[in-house]
């Protein structure tokens, strides 16, 4: 679990910043919510941190510690789930961005590990409209490219929660965190049009929607490698000299 918190010193950050035209910080945002009986409550945080660390291994970015509790209201029916309001999450990310700019880090990429954090899109849109440099990663297109490259069988629609993708990433990055049972926990519910009203409990008893039985460490490794490659376009956009670029 030590890889969830960056080990940089202030001198490391200073040296890295001296070698780039514009400093970019990467903020993993996870959640603390049920992921069935076999994945930990911190799954989304572990996934976001795995993606962010893969990025930090390939690009000169300022890796931040994760936001570990976010907007998990749709999972409230399960013990252990904890949420904050969207207003609070919005404020936290904005405050972090303001603090970074004070110290000379002009751009922020929010690496989101939880699909229910809809407000993060608003944060990025509003910040970009003010002329600030911010981006949300990965986009659905990045996940789709990663899914295809890794040979993930389940579609993004079906692989909604505790499915093939999340299980694969944890099998690769944190295999010690999985409990027995993912091999027999597949459950599909593609029509979820009332999710915001009914929550997850309206569609699944186990908390799983997806096919975790198809997960593998090899797929997890390829998913992360693909996302790191996709991040290149974001890094170029945020570090370009064009002040009109938006996030």
Task: List strands and helices in order, with pairings.
Blueprint: H1 10-18, E1 24-29, H2 43-58, E2 62-63, H3 86-102, E3 107-112, H4 119-129, E4 133-137, H5 140-150, H6 164-173, H7 195-198, H8 217-239
Parallel strand pairs: 1-2, 1-3, 3-4
Helix pairs in contact: 2-6, 2-8, 3-4, 5-8, 6-8
User: Please, what is the average pLDDT?
Assistant: 95
**N/C terminus separation:** 31 Å
Shape: globular
Classification by helices and strands: alpha/beta
Helix-strand pattern: HEHEHEHEHHHH
How many E strands? 4
SS element count, helices: 8
Strand content: 5-15%
> What does the largest sheet look like?
4 strands, parallel
| Sequence of strands across the biggest β-sheet | 2-1-3-4
Ranges where pLDDT stays below 50 over 5 or more residues in a row are: none
- Report helical residue fraction: 40-55%
Rg value: 18 Å
Spell out the key features of this protein:
247 residues; alpha/beta; 8 helices; 4 strands; 8% strand
Q: TL;DR?
A:
With 247 residues, this protein is α/β, with parallel strands linked by helices. Helix content is 41%, strand content 8%.
Write up what this structure looks like.
The protein is globular and about 50 Å long. The mean pLDDT is 95. The protein has 8 helices and 4 strands; from the N terminus they run H-E-H-E-H-E-H-E-H-H-H-H. The chain has helices at residues 10-18, 43-58, 86-102, 119-129, 140-150, 164-173, 195-198, 217-239; strands spanning 24-29, 62-63, 107-112, 133-137. With 247 residues, it is of the alpha/beta class. It has a 4-stranded parallel beta sheet, sandwiched between helices.
């Amino acid at each position: 679990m030590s890889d969830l918190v960056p080990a940089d010193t202030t001198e490391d950050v200073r040296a890295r910043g001296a070698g780039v035209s514009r400093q970019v910080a990467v903020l993993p945002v996870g959640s603390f919510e049920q992921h069935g009986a076999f994945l930990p409550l911190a799954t989304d945080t572990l996934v976001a941190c795995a993606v962010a660390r893969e990025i930090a291994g390939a690009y000169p970015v300022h890796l931040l510690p994760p936001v570990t509790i976010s907007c998990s209201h749709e999972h409230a029916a399960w013990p252990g789930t904890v949420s904050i309001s969207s207003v609070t999450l919005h404020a936290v990310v904005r405050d972090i961005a303001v603090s970074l700019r004070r110290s000379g880090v002009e751009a922020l990429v929010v690496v989101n590990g939880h699909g229910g954090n809809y407000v993060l899109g608003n944060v990025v849109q509003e910040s970009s409209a003010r002329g600030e440099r911010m981006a949300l990663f990965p986009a659905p297109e990045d996940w789709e490219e990663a899914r295809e490259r890794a040979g993930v069988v389940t579609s993004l629609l079906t692989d909604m929660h505790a499915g093939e993708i999340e299980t694969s990433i944890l099998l690769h990055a944190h295999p010690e965190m999985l409990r027995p049972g993912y091999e027999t926990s597949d459950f599909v519910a593609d029509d979820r049009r009332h999710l915001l009203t009914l929550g997850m409990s309206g569609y699944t008893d186990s908390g799983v929607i997806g096919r975790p039985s198809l997960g593998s460490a090899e797929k997890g490794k390829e998913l992360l490698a693909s996302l790191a490659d996709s991040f290149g376009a974001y890094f170029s956009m945020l570090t370009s000299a064009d002040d009109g670029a938006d996030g």
